[in-house]
Amino acid sequence: MTTIDVDRLAEIGRNSLPDVTPGTKVNVVELEDGAGVCVVHAVRGGGKVYVAPDGTVLFAGSSVTFDAGLGAFLDGARTARPTGR
Description:
By secondary structure, the protein is an alpha+beta fold. The chain contains two helices and four strands.
């Protein structure tokens, strides 16, 4: 099993979620086999960000189930980074 820096990946995910401020509560789920983490903002209109060990992310809106987002993430889907960042 690969060791990952959960705190670093969680921070990347937290920064990738829209409308999340420093005091906002999010849940961090460590993915199996060192695949990364999923940062969940569990509110209406929130969402999930799956973060790979290399820092790339996949954003999934609140209407997407955890398993559907995870499947896409594990298949290599990623959200494009905004330009200028």
